[in-house]
């Protein structure tokens, strides 16, 4: 049995869909089980069991892990990341889980530190010391996060950032989910650390150009200095300070540490990853 933590998240929900298509049984955890049952729908109820659990409630996790051998761990980033995931790993080991697949972040860069990457680095260390088989997935920027740019694109035909013309790796969360399913099902490729990207890199000005063509109107990218972007994200994007800092740190890192795509998704799945062009076409209505 595979237990899914993060089943309502972007990656976790796509993983559930993939497991349903493959007919692989899983137990999905949620603090709102009825909401998750509605998300899964009739199709998934024959293979997906929904259990009530809370990451901060050890006893609920012990019940949820009973009889399971694998755990998919994809929690939303938060200042409690290290505390919660460390506890989950310890409880999983005690409950008899043999293999954990963790969604992490690209490797921590000393030259341009990202605090959240540092959190994941600490959790990966706990995994390494746990004695459990573990597979770590380190995806780069999610294409789905581009949808957060939609409000100013739809109302002002602009979006903001601090990456300048630096190219960035993007990956569709559904490809991350497909890789997660593969390493959960195929033991031959488990127990490794995989950095995941799409097949191309794009700068924000290039994305603005693609959107302009798709929407048949001019979309502009406005570059800001990091402190200005930080203030904008908190005041206008209503982000908590830690999250706004995270966004700015990621974009700053892109200007300092060159990014380039790899072929990991293709090697693991036997197909090319989804393209940014296909993603923008699929979600074009969100930007109108």
Topology:
Elements: E1 2-5, H1 10-22, E2 26-30, H2 33-44, E3 48-52, H3 58-65, E4 70-73, H4 81-95, E5 99-103, H5 115-130, E6 133-139, E7 141-142, H6 150-156, E8 158-161, E9 168-171, H7 173-185, E10 193-196, E11 201-202, H8 204-215, E12 220-223, H9 226-235, H10 241-256, H11 264-269, H12 276-282
Parallel strand pairs: 1-2, 1-4, 2-3, 4-5, 5-6, 6-10, 7-9, 8-12
Antiparallel strand pairs: 9-11
Helix pairs in contact: 1-2, 1-7, 3-4, 4-5, 9-10
How would you sum up this structure, described in words?
- With 288 residues, this protein is α/β, with parallel strands linked by helices.
- It has a domain at 2-139 and 173-196 and 261-270: 3-Layer(aba) Sandwich (Rossmann fold).
- The protein has helices spanning 10-22, 33-44, 58-65, 81-95, 115-130, 150-156, 173-185, 204-215, 226-235, 241-256, 264-269, 276-282, and strands spanning 2-5, 26-30, 48-52, 70-73, 99-103, 133-139, 141-142, 158-161, 168-171, 193-196, 201-202, 220-223.
- The strands form 3 sheets. Strands 3-2-1-4-5-6-10 form a 7-stranded parallel beta sheet, with helices on both faces. The protein has a 3-stranded mixed beta sheet with strand order 7-9-11. The protein has a two-stranded parallel sheet with strand order 8-12.
- Helix 1 (10-22) links the parallel strand 1 and strand 2 (26-30).
- It is globular and about 55 Å long.
- The model has no long low-confidence stretch (mean pLDDT 93).
């Amino acid at each position: 049995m595979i237990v899914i933590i993060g089943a309502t998240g972007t990656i976790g929900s796509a993983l559930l869909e993939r497991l349903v298509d493959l007919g692989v049984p899983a137990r999905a955890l949620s603090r709102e089980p009825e909401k998750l049952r509605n998300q899964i729908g009739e199709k998934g109820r024959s293979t997906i069991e929904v259990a009530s659990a809370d990451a901060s409630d050890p006893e609920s996790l012990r019940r949820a892990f009973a009889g399971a051998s694998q755990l998919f761990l994809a929690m939303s980033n938060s200042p409690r990341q290290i505390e919660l995931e460390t506890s989950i790993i310890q409880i999983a080991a005690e409950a008899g889980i043999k293999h954990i697949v963790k969604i992490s972040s690209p490797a921590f860069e000393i030259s341009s530190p990202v605090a959240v990457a540092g959190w994941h680095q600490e959790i990966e260390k706990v995994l390494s010391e746990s004695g459990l088989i573990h597979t770590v997935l380190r995806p780069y920027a999610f294409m789905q996060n581009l949808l957060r740019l939609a409000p100013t694109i739809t109302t002002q035909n602009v979006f903001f950032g601090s990456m300048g013309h630096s190219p960035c790796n993007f990956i569709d969360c559904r490809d991350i989910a497909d890789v997660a399913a593969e390493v959960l099902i195929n033991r031959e490729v488990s127990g490794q650390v995989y950095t995941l990207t799409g097949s191309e890199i794009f700068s924000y000005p290039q994305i603005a150009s693609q959107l302009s063509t798709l929407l048949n109107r001019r979309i502009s990218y406005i570059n800001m200095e990091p402190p200005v972007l930080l203030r904008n994200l908190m005041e206008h994007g209503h982000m908590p300070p830690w999250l706004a800092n995270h966004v700015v740190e990621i974009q700053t890192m892109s200007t300092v540490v060159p990014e380039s795509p790899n072929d990991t998704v293709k090697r693991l799945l036997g197909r090319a990853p989804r393209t940014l062009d296909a993603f923008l076409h699929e979600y074009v209505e969100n930007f109108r």
